[in-house]
Amino acid sequence: MRNYDIIIIGGGPAGLAAAISAYDNGVKSILILEREAQLGGILNQCIHNGFGLARFKESLTGPEYAERFIVGVKERGIEYLTETTVLSVSNDKKVTAISAENGVFTVEGKAVVLSMGCRERSRGALNVAGTRPAGVYSAGTAQKYVNILGYMPGRSVVILGSGDIGLIMARRMTLEGAKVHAVCEIMPHSSGLKRNIVQCLDDFDIPLYLNHTIVNIEGKERVQGVTIAQVDANKKPIKGTEKHFDCDTVLFSVGLIPENELSKTAGVNLSPRTKGAIVYENRETSVDGIFACGNVLQVHDLVDFVSEEAEIAGKSAAEYVLNGATEKEVIETDCGANVTYVLPQKINKNAGGNVKAFFRVSKVIKNCTVKAECNGEVIISRKKKIAVPGEMETLLLLGDKLKGLNGKITVSVEGETE
């Protein structure tokens, strides 16, 4: 068993940024474990541009964005193992993994950073009626087939769900010569970024049916068609609103789930709201010395935010290794009106410094007021023209304000709702 100061599980954008941050903050003994054949994670199949606008002030493709961090890891001589699957993480930071080259092995770290990313919700989670023919894919799987393997999943497509991957694949399939008949979304609003709705649907005249879902998939050997219908306020199909499309392919883009099976083996407490770990502002979990960042913690809409969060986790892991655990005086965060979750869930007042709170709203809200309050006292408040569920929001909590607080900090968004 080899020992490292920091072990990072996952070599995607979060793991890479965390490794570089930890190294630059004084810890050189770092190991990255990645199950794929190369570093970069999901970005390797995201060949469209639009990455890095916030961080680098330029539009990069996914592989270009990843390459900047991969180069940074290699320049620093940070050790990494690819084609290596982690089997378990213990609460004393022993990591057991397996690979064709090394077999089953265990490494031990003084700190561990969890950055395993997320997975797509499957058709099985939705109970969509119909047969089980070929031609039904998650949007991410279809993206890998087209962009990495060079296969076309189909030529006549209906997409369920308006998540960003689904929107991007509507454009991608169209550019490859397929006919995308419709994107259906059960909610009254899209769950994707506004820019993706414009660039991927509007620019290609692909209709978006809000408050609609698929009620039947037809076909024996291969998909032959689907029927969609409008839904009521209880998300139940409304009879008489059905529309039929002849198609050979159905793509599902119906949400992402943080990949937290390893977090559970380590005894990390998970949030029922985010499905990721409950963390402090430094991204430390409920287990001392185990940190989490990226989509395994909360599903981000921009990779720029993933990198920012990973740098916090990497720096914090380095500080833990160099200085040990610190005494915590905790204040918790909570969800107020129209907010689905707030992260971090806990703030250590002894840490000092400002804390950026991340949160999402539950519905479209216009001309709104975003505020954080504690015991009826407003800590910070700002105006915003519109807040939508598909785009993550942030609120900066000032360190000097946090020191004197007792009780929960509640974040809320109030304004005009549709």
Which CATH architecture of the largest domain is right? Answer: 3-Layer(bba) Sandwich
N-to-C CA distance? 58 Å
Largest sheet: 7 strands, mixed
Shape: globular
**Strand share of the residues?**
25-35%
| CATH topology title of the largest domain | FAD/NAD(P)-binding domain
Protein structure class? alpha/beta
What is the CATH H-level superfamily of the largest domain?
FAD/NAD(P)-binding domain
The radius of gyration is 22 Å
Instruction: Work out the helix count.
Output: 8
Q: What is the CATH class of the largest domain?
A: Alpha Beta
State the assembly state of the protein chains. Answer: single chain
Which properties best describe this structure?
7-stranded mixed beta sheet; 3 domains; Immunoglobulin-like; single chain; 8 helices; FAD/NAD(P)-binding domain; 25 strands; alpha/beta; 21% helix; 418 residues
Secondary structure layout:
Blueprint: E1 2-9, H1 13-24, E2 30-33, H2 62-75, E3 79-81, E4 84-89, E5 94-99, E6 103-114, E7 118-120, E8 136-138, H3 139-149, E9 156-160, H4 164-175, E10 179-185, H5 194-201, E11 208-210, E12 212-218, E13 225-230, E14 243-246, E15 249-252, E16 256-258, H6 261-265, E17 290-292, H7 303-323, E18 330-335, E19 339-343, E20 346-348, E21 355-361, E22 365-374, E23 377-387, E24 393-397, H8 399-402, E25 409-417
Parallel strand pairs: 1-2, 1-6, 2-3, 6-17, 8-15, 9-10, 9-15, 10-11, 18-25
Antiparallel strand pairs: 4-5, 5-6, 7-16, 12-13, 13-14, 18-20, 19-21, 21-24, 22-23, 22-25
Helix pairs in contact: 1-2, 1-7, 3-4, 4-5
